[in-house]
Amino acid sequence: MTMLTFRDNDLPQDTAPVSPHLPVQGQNRARSELTYLLFNGDEQARVHGAWRNLLSTGEFRHRPGLSPAERVELSYSRLRLVNEAAGSPTDLALDPQRLSALHEWTGVVDGGLCTLASIHYNLFLGSLLEQDADSGGRDLSAFTEMRRTGTFLCTELGHGNDAAALETTAEYDRETGGFILHTPNDRAQKFMPNTSLAGGPKSAVVAARLVIDGEDQGAFLFLTPLSDENGHLPGVHVKQLPDRTGTPVDHCLTRFHMVRLPREALLEAEHGRLDREGLLHSTLGSARKRFLHSIGRVTSGKLCMSAGTLGMSRAALTIAVRHAHSRHISGMKRGERIPLVAHRSHHSRLLDSIATAYAMTLLHREVVSQWVGHTPENRADTERLVAITKGWITWQARAIAIESRERCGAQGLFPVNGISELPLNIEGGITAEGDNLVIWNKAASEMLFGHQMERRRACDEPLAERSLTDLGFLRDLLAEVESDAQRRARSALRQGPAGDPLGRWNEASETALEMVSAHVCREAADAFIAAAARAADPTARSLLEDLCRLFLLRQLDSHTGRLLAEGHLTADHVRAFPDVRNDIIAGLAPHMLSLVDAFDLPAEFLATVPIASGGRIGDEGDMWSTWPRASVSASTAE
User: Fold this and answer.
1) SS3 of 252, please?
2) Which of 419, 430, 391 is closest to 314 using CA atoms?
3) Among residues 460, 477, 453, 470, which one has the least CA distance to residue 564?
4) How is 408-432 classified by DSSP, letter by letter?
5) Are 511 and 492 in contact (CB under 8 A)?
6) Where are the beta strands (DSSP E) in 17-61?
7) Fewer Cβ within 10 Å of end Cβ, the chain: N or C?
8) Could you give the CA distance from residue 614 to residue 616 in angstroms, rounded to a whole number?
9) DSSP 3-state assignment of 159?
10) Rounded CA gap, 557 and 571, in Å?
11) Which 3 state secondary structure label does DSSP give 174?
């Protein structure tokens, strides 16, 4: 029968079996195969190895009792450890796979570090490397050796999602050939950059409107020193913002008063070059295009934000599932003790989340791959997919983290148990690099007429004989949901009030957003099905297929009425939905530990999380700073 065992401590070993399980050897093979498929296959060590190893070290353990300021300094200290592990920081900044993976692992233990790493490597270093072709080999050693930390100043107090309308100016000074950086009003204060003195001296890439002889040329980026060992530099005014939710970061309001910058401060490439006479030359036709080119690293930032929340949600699930196996409650019979996981009401919610987490992970891998291989011809479509994916993954991550925390009861409220802060840290990812609803609205407007929907594949089998366990059938039903939403949104737009563009969009927007949701879920299903087909181990393949079925049934559940009305489902199909889903959950329940073990969180990390290693706050000898390094595993006994 199946039992749970606890190693290296004296915790009870009375967990009752949930249902028959695979032999240990079979579990290990399947779990290894799942990890291989989830974490970039043969590239796993290169992409994830250095960051996963950091989680195994003492420097990344929970530190109780720190003040917000001390936690900020700890995040900067850990950023330097990341830099040591990076190899070449410039190579890291230009490698979307390793860069997003960095966030996937560090976010698990330090949301502040996840934010700082995204700013320093992606937005700051990445912009210098990609948008600075004419720098003549700018010396970046101060930033790659972390003598100075980089930050990125674009969003203003009065301009968030409409950052193209920013008001900070950088006026060209013909006498010196340099620029005068200035904040003209309160609206133009840079909002929320990490510009305090915490973490040591800093420099920024600042987005400002280039003004030449009084003419606005649009927004460009300018490399600007902010502080040194003695404090902020003249003309740089910084005000610390109040504490926000989640792991603290030194967010500030920042303004500039007539700060003089040298000629080389301007980041130049094909989007804009100044000649010796002060004339701007650009291969791009509009100021908006030049601005979008300047902030191009926001796209890879979306991959980083979604990766960070993805790692957090997988960690939350791992902790919750392990707790569900070790936490025992009264059973149905007098004197009986059973694990939480034995209850369908408990494990079904976690299995739904596991299925979604697998879909999120496999979609993220596919989208990163597409971004790495994009061409000028498909760049716009790929950028849109990155943006949609960021919205979907971060929203799903929040739902998973909240569900997982709740399934841990009161134990989940203690930060030492590794789960309570994750939902709040995920909130930051939802808003960073573009508010989710705004970027989905933009995508919806583009896809309404500019996107060709995938139609269902031809099938000779009568509809009544199609099975709800047929992945191809379920996937095509989701494609039909996507296509139907597009048709209805188009109709609503056309029938909206004439001469009122906003009114017409308001009529169509809700259905258009439904189209975007169905589209990204269908993309996730495609990545899921493809991964299952690649699985060499039959058990791993079977588990992936069942997880994918569970994911698809969940996505389709709210659309069954329309699918029935449009003739894509029969009444018997609709009636069968709950039973099919229940059977899949029953089959997956015995494998829950293996499914989350495949998320590959280091044993050293899990051993220091009490409820992930069989313990509870309040147990005898609960000195959490020296918590015994125990681990939970599924095993079999005859």
Assistant:
1) strand
2) 419
3) 477
4) TGGGGGSGGGT-TTHHHHHHHHHHT
5) yes
6) none
7) C
8) 7
9) strand
10) 14
11) coil
Neighbours of 178 (CB within 10 A): 18
Residue 394 has pLDDT above 50, yes or no: yes
The token pair at 572 is: 């018997």
* Amino acid at residue number 137: G
**Residue 125 scores a pLDDT above 80:** yes
Report the C-alpha gap between 5 and 28 in whole angstroms.
16
* Residues 6+ away with beta carbon under 8 Å from 615: 9, 11, 326, 622, 627, 630
**299 contacts 383 by C-beta, under 8 angstroms:** yes
Q: What is d(CA 166, CA 251) in angstroms, rounded to the nearest whole number? A: 19
pLDDT tens figures, 70-94: 999 999 999 999 999 999 999 999 9
462, two tokens: 């009568």
Residue 306: closest CA among 421, 426, 394, 399? 394
Identify the three-state secondary structure at position 20. Answer: coil
The pLDDT of residue 61: 93
CA-wise closest residue to 203 among 225, 236, 222: 225
| C-alpha angle 293-160-502 in degrees, rounded to nearest 5 | 95
For residues 441 and 514, is the Cβ–Cβ distance under 8 A? no
| Best CA proximity match to 180, nearest among 254, 239, 266, 252 | 266
Amino acid at 261: L
DSSP-derived 3-state class of residue 529: helix
Helix ranges (H only) for 408-537 are: 422-431, 436-450, 471-494, 501-534
pLDDT tens digits, residue range 573-609? 999 999 999 999 999 999 999 999 999 999 999 999 9
Q: d(Cα 255, Cα 181) in Å, to the nearest integer?
A: 9
pTM confidence score: 0.92
Mean pLDDT in residue range 210-219: 93
Instruction: Give residue 626's pLDDT.
Output: 45
Alpha helices in 283-420 (DSSP H): 287-294, 297-326, 344-372, 379-407
For the four alpha carbons of 104, 109, 112 and 113, in that order, the dihedral sign comes to: negative
